[in-house]
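Hello,

Our lab assistant flagged a job as stuck in the queue for most of the afternoon. It eventually completed. Since we weren't sure the result was trustworthy after the delay, we are filing this so someone can double-check. Below is the sequence as submitted and the structure that was eventually returned. Let us know if re-running is recommended.
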Amino acid sequence: MAIDISNLAQENHRYAIHLATREKVIAYKNGFFSLENYVLEEPHFVVDFYRNTALACELLLKAALLKHHINFFKRRENCEYGEKVIALTNKWLAANLKELTIDYISQINTGTAASTLKAAEAAFGKLSIEKEKFQFITKAFYLIIRTRRNRNSHFFFSNMARFDISEVEMVYLPLLNILEDLYEMPKRDEFPV
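-- returned structure --
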């Protein structure tokens, strides 16, 4: 038996929304992220919020790229174990799995946020997004990676547990909404169905 990952973009989109709204600081309604709560006082919840929201941004970027047929997968070598993987109703994804000789879900390497951004930049012409918005995506990701995401994900530092509403308003919310717009844009389907 094999796992059908035809709807991988949609599944990651839903998971990104779940993570972004988990701490109830950010709300999602009708395709738009907004502030719901301006205060987070518990240090662990603050770190959870920033980690989850940064991961939500990465997942939303990856979901948008998959939806727009931009491959960022690589093949993980020596991982022929676990369940097999197929894409029954997604011909583009099935073709990429075949091209990369990926038979098992364990062989799929989705890369990092930085490597995904490079794949997006290389395929910029396939995306219907303004250059300025794409530049904001890149700058926001690198800011998040350097200041919060990597530090919050691997160790707890109390100085990282301060909630800064201006950071949410100027970086995270705009990034989430631009990525949501990118995900929802009609795709330039260059692959025959």
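-- support follow-up --
The delay was a queue issue, not a problem with the job. The result is valid. DSSP finds six helices and six strands in the chain. The radius of gyration is 17 Å.
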